[in-house]
Design goal:
- By secondary structure, the chain is an alpha+beta fold.
- It folds into two domains: 100 residues, Phosphorylase Kinase, domain 1 (2-Layer Sandwich), CATH 3.30.200.20; 189 residues, Aminoglycoside phosphotransferase (APH), C-terminal lobe (Aminoglycoside 3'-phosphotransferase, Chain: A, domain 2, Alpha-Beta Complex).
- Helices cover 35% and strands 15% of the residues.
- It contains nine helices and eleven strands.
- Strands 1-2-3-5-4 form a five-stranded antiparallel beta sheet.
- Strand 4 and strand 5 form a beta hairpin.
- Helix 6 crosses helix 9 and helix 8 runs antiparallel to helix 9.
- It is globular.
- It catalyses: N(6)-(D-erythrulosyl)-L-lysyl-[protein] + ATP = N(6)-(3-O-phospho-D-erythrulosyl)-L-lysyl-[protein] + ADP + H(+); N(6)-D-ribulosyl-L-lysyl-[protein] + ATP = N(6)-(3-O-phospho-D-ribulosyl)-L-lysyl-[protein] + ADP + H(+).
- Its EC number is 2.7.1.172.
- It is found in: Plastid, Chloroplast.
């Protein structure tokens, strides 16, 4: 990962970069390297420092250094005498974005299955924008063990279910695109309306693409047959599982980062597989814990479609042909 400046964010929901998405970085920071006297002088204007030196149980911040490379959120490591902390901030977006991340990380953390960074605090910045403080995880040399990743991800899906149906406690973001998580009792309705339908609406608004909007809506209204004979439970999903959000800790255990969590059909977790590098050992281990359901292969591209549409919205028309190809294939298959 190349460091492009003092404050650099992570890029999520794309094969371009490492983990999250965000705004262009600030030119400089008043805190590049300092000792406690300077920290104490800034406490009143800096809720990040204030939390680290109180609830974070540190007495001194010895260094602040940028982490990663990207363009939407600033990401920094805070070294202290109580250990390191990972801090993301965004100068343009309010705390609601990080609220969704905190709720998602907590939900995954509480399953005690796959490792995720423990979130500590989020809030508003006095000068505008927001921040989140979380556990700093030392990454190992290898990205992850594929079979262990598959097994632990399946254990998380099996452990965390929702009695409210499909959705999440708050709306959140997939990359920087809003992700609507209104609780819905029926999965087909939820996926058609809040996943495919919402992305198609944004494409029409942003690009005026009536062709993909019309064909996509026709597909969304007719996906029911793809789920016949399938028992669908609302499992906790990471929601944005691509290679940049998958790594391992220094002990070689899989770690997943920067979620866009919601409760949905477990197969939807593989929607970024075209950008995640999942291999045979991953799927074999996963299906040992969560058995493969009838028609899995027929539904795979349907779940890829959501993320191709989102990439069209985020990065432009280079993703249009892939999305439209999937839509047209399904329209022919379903004869609608």
């Amino acid at each position: 990962m190349a460091v492009a400046g003092l404050h650099v964010g992570f890029m999520s929901s794309s094969c371009i970069s490492f983990a999250d998405t965000g705004i262009l970085p600030r030119k400089s920071s008043p805190f590049t390297r300092f000792q406690r006297p300077l920290v104490m002088a800034c406490l009143g204007n800096d809720p990040i420092t204030e939390w680290i030196l109180s609830e974070g149980k540190a007495t001194q911040i010895t260094r602040i250094s940028p982490v990663g490379g990207g363009c939407i959120n600033n990401a920094n490591r805070y070294d202290t005498d109580a250990g390191p902390f990972f801090v993301k901030s965004n100068r343009s977006i309010g705390p609601s974005m990080f609220e969704g991340e905190v709720l998602g990380l907590n939900a995954m953390y509480e399953t005690h299955t796959i490792r995720v960074p423990k979130p500590y605090k989020f809030g508003a910045l006095p000068t505008g924008g927001s921040y989140i403080i979380m556990e700093f995880i030392e990454f190992g040399a290898s990205r992850s063990n594929q079979s262990e990743l598959g097994r632990k991800l399946a254990e998380m899906h099996k452990a965390a279910k929702s009695e409210k149906g499909f959705g999440f406690h708050v709306d959140n973001t997939i990359g920087s695109t809003p992700q609507i998580n209104t609780w819905t009792s029926d999965w087909v309705e939820f996926y058609a309306e809040h996943r495919l339908g919402y992305q198609l609406k944004l494409i029409r608004q942003q690009y005026g693409d009536s062709t993909i909007h019309e064909r996509g809506q026709r597909l969304a209204k007719n996906i029911g047959p793809l789920f016949e004979g399938v028992a669908i439970e609302p499992c906790l999903l990471h929601g944005d599982l691509w290679s940049g959000n998958i790594t391992s800790d220094k002990n070689g255990e899989p770690v997943i980062l920067d979620p866009a969590c919601y409760y949905g059909h477990n197969e939807a977790e593989f929607g970024m597989s075209w950008c995640a590098g999942f291999g045979g050992s991953f799927y074999n281990a996963y299906f040992e814990v969560m058995p493969k359901q009838p028609g899995f292969e027929k539904r795979r591209d349907l779940y890829l479609l959501y993320h191709y549409l989102n990439h069209y919205n985020l990065f432009g028309s280079s993703y249009r042909s892939s999305a439209l190809s999937i839509i047209d294939d399904y329209l022919r298959m379903l004869k609608v």
